[in-house]
Amino acid sequence: MTTTNLADRAVDLGEWAKSTPNATTEFAAAVRTWLDENLAGDFADLKGRGGPGSEHEFFAERLEWDRHLAAAGWTCIGWPVEYGGRGATLEQRIIFHREYARANAPARVNHLGEELLGPTLIAYGTDEQKRRLLPGIVDVTELWSQGYSEPGAGSDLAGVSTSARLEESNGSGKWIINGQKIWTSLAHVAQWVFVIARTEKGSSRHAGLSFLLVPLDQPGITVRPIQQLTGTSEFNEVFFDDAETEADLIVGEPGDGWKVAMGLLQFERGVSTLGQQVGFARELGNLTDLARANGALDDPEIASRLARADIGLTVMRAHAQRTLDGDVTSQAGAGSGASGPNPAGAASVSKLLWANWHRDLGELAMDVVGAPSLIGPAATAEGKANDITDPENVELDEWQRLYLFTRADTIYGGSNEVQRNIIAERVLGLPREAR
């Protein structure tokens, strides 16, 4: 058993593994022990809190938990050591996400910074951008949101119309941004947003786009939360009215926005999806237990659907493991770009698999619960009386929330139709859809 304290950012996990017999087993045990010891006291109440459809739950407390993780060196573990990471191997990262999910630890509040923007800056950013922005992601003092979709450009990202022009004077300059983004997750709690904007006047589709880093706390930006089917608001409309950002806060060169944006999307479907699948397995297990307890499992159709869900989860895991062999956010691959023979196709298959599986699980949950699924819980998560007649404040139980929120799974992050078009056109070589 190792005597090294792995909950220490000074320890290079990759180098430690090279010199440690049974490193895989010891690392898993260290993560599991740390989580067991630290998800205690006030943090114990956060187990299972947050996540899609529940981001409003205990946000301040979950932010404190994330900073507690950071202090122990458990944030950004897959980043290279020189950028504040831990140099973790792909296997170690998979283990960490699985152990985190198995511990039912709370949903992280800075996923967009740690899993998406950080690796993108490491791959495409300047040294100054890395020096300035990566530390705030590592210690969770700066939160990020994603400014991609627009009212007229949802899954079709190449249709964005938000514009930015560069104004220069006295040797310095700034980007002036105008337009609107929508479905901007967590913008109401973030300090920054990364924005795809059209910087070449008269350009269209993939050409003329740039990837800008924009501070949210300024007069030219208005953030308006959007109420969801679940009654909560975790995504927003964001309006840019002569909003500003510094000239050097552009990732890549002007016009490189499409390349950088597509690189970021490869990170989005990386190792963290394995932790997501552990959460899916917990949901399926809980639903099966409920079906057994309330007698729904005696219905052959319900039993068959639960069995098919289990098979689907196994397929999902196998696909994720297969496509992670060349994961670009590992220390060895950082900066190398997307890998594999067709990363776009692999990402689209992954999205189709999990989104449709999860949506179907929500529908199955309603059939397992039966008539009680029409009634809300008696109290909110904070212990207040629940008023099901007040659509602005009603709280749903876990199965109602699962059903309603998973209706969006096949839409956000690229709709089913767009994912199938990518596979048809870029993988199978079929004729492009008429546009």
TrEMBL record:
GO terms for molecular function: flavin adenine dinucleotide binding; oxidoreductase activity, acting on the CH-CH group of donors. Residues 255-428 form the Acyl-CoA dehydrogenase/oxidase C-terminal domain. Its cofactor is FAD. Residues 25-139 form the Acyl-CoA dehydrogenase/oxidase N-terminal domain. SUPFAM superfamilies: Acyl-CoA dehydrogenase C-terminal domain-like, Acyl-CoA dehydrogenase NM domain-like. Residues 147-242 form the Acyl-CoA oxidase/dehydrogenase middle domain. One of its GO terms (cellular component) is plasma membrane. The keyword Phosphoprotein does not apply. Keywords: FAD, Flavoprotein, Oxidoreductase. It comes from the Bacteria. Belongs to the acyl-CoA dehydrogenase family. This is Acyl-CoA dehydrogenase. It comes from Gordonia lacunae.
